[in-house]
Structures are given as structure tokens and as C-alpha cells.
Amino acid sequence: FEHKQWYQRRVRVWEMILEGGALVLADQGICCIDEFDKMNESDRTAIHEVMEQQTISIAKAGILTTLNARVSILAAANPAYGRYNTKKSVEQNIQLPAALLSRFDLLWLIRDKPDANTDLRLAQHITYVHQHSTHPPREVEPLDPELMKRYIMACKKKDPIIPEDLTEYIVATYVELRKNAREDPRNATFTSARNLLAVLRLATALARLRFVEVVERDDIDEANRLMEMSKASLVEDEQTTRRTRPVDLIYGIIRDLQKDGATTVKYDDARGRCIAKGFNSDQFGECIDEYERLNIWHVNAARTRITFIQ
């Protein structure tokens, strides 16, 4: 609210004017928030309703109304005391309440790690811009911004649906996600029903990008992969990453799918589970071929079944 002076028929009138803030103005768009950790407590309380109900309720100065805030929020926050402490949780590092962090579909940790090649390229870029007042020559020509705008507007017109035959698969992947979160002591975030809604939103968005009317299983797998990679970025475990090859990790995932006493695993189930864990199709195929050469398992000609060799 702000007091505004305006004139009508040469008579000065004082009225209370209701002005929409950033979230209301960004309705049906994207609101980018920097320095998210330095947000006022009152604004932080208001954003809870926006991220949960997509509306903002106003009850001040005799004005009772509800404004639409159907907006996606992209926020960036700095760690407390200027450096991320891997021995503390995400909430302790960013000093934001867990209730607010859980409303974000994806949380990515981007750390500034010393790297000779990256530091050299960054220093060369900064010095070039400082000297020539323009960016250095690009290796790849970027897309035209107007083309991207038209593409995004066309994507927004699509409203894909999730078919009934994917319901059981979505439920199974969510139950598995909860199980892994409960068994993994390194899990830095709490897994709740909001994560299931996040998977549905991500899968629908991926379908929009392809201009299709129905969400496919690959969209669900990619959404789960994004969720897994998001959680993995919050876990500092460099030594394990260096020692273990992706092929061996995929083998462990496929082994876990083997039922008690069963000797076969469905090929599509194994591929979907590995992609949901953050691996790509090439790594999965490499694992299948390598362990087949080692006579660990055999894949039929139609590539629908993996049979373990006793």
C-alpha cells in the first residue's frame, strides 16, 4: 500500500491504492529472486502462500481481496558466512526454514571449486570484456531471443495429460524414492508428497517442450532423474565418485531389482530405474554389454528381458 496523490477535477483527493508486487506482476510467468536468503520475514511468510496456493490474500486498510500469483519462482541464495559448509545441512547453510525449501521442486548446490582450466577461462573472459567492452567471440551462435519467446509461448498453449496406465509406475517410483530417502543417511532433504507433485509438474513440462498432448514414461523417468541429480548435488562424496564407475553402480541397481529367487529382470524396468537414478542411456547400454561379455547375465534378442546366469 502506498499513499498516492492524484488530481481529479482540480480537487486534491487522498485514496488508498493497492499495487501488485513482483509475484502478482509475474502472474503466469517466472519471477527471479536474487539474495533469497536476505528476504524480509514478512515477505518470506507471504511467499509460502504463493508457492502453495498460487494466490496472495490481502486484508489491510479495509481492503479484502485475493490476487492471482500463478508464477514459477527461480531463486538464488548465498550460504551463511560466505562459504558452504559440507558438514552442515542445507537449512543450516542457507539459514532458510525447511518448510520453505520443501516447496521448491528442485534444489541445486553450485559450489565454486578451484579448477585451473575453469579459472583460466573465467579470467580471460573478464579481462577481454574489461579491455574491449564487449564479449569475446563465441564458438556457438546463440538462438535468437525472439525465436525462444515464440517457442515458449507455443509450449504454454499445450496442456498434456497423464494417462492412467502410467499411474502405477508413478506411484511405484515415488514409493521407491521414499524408501531410498529413509535408508540413505546422507540424504540432505526430506522426501514428501510434494516431491510427487514436483515429478508430475516436471513430466508435464517436458511433454510441453515436445508439443505433445500425452505425458510418456520417458518424461517420468527424466523428471525422476532431475530429482535424483538435484539431491545428489547436495551430498559431498567426491571420493566415492572417483572410485566407483557408473557401469558398476548401474550393475548394483539392476541387482537390486532382482526378486527373491527370480533370475530375470524386465529390460525397460531396469533402464527406467537407472535413468531415474541419474544415469543416461549410453551408460546403461555400456553396463549391459560389459556384464554380458563377463557372462553375468544374458539379454534376449528383443531386448525385453535380462536373465542372470547362475
Number of strands: 9
Helix content: 40-55%
Give the strand content.
5-15%
Largest sheet: 3 strands, antiparallel
> What structural class is derived from the secondary structure elements?
alpha+beta
| Spatial ordering of strands, largest sheet | 7-9-8
Low-confidence stretches: 1-11, 237-242
Output the number of helix runs.
13
- Tell me the overall shape: globular
Estimate the mean pLDDT confidence: 81
Whole-Å distance between the termini? 74 Å
- What's the helix-strand series? EEHEHEEEHHHHHHHHHEHHEE
Radius of gyration based on Cα positions: 25 Å
Structure in words:
A hairpin with a 5-residue loop joins strand 8 and strand 9. The chain has a 3-stranded antiparallel β-sheet. The protein is an alpha+beta fold. It has 13 helices and 9 strands. The protein is 47% helix and 14% strand. It starts with a strand and ends with a strand. Helix 9 packs parallel to helix 12, helix 11 crosses helix 12 and helix 11 packs across helix 13.
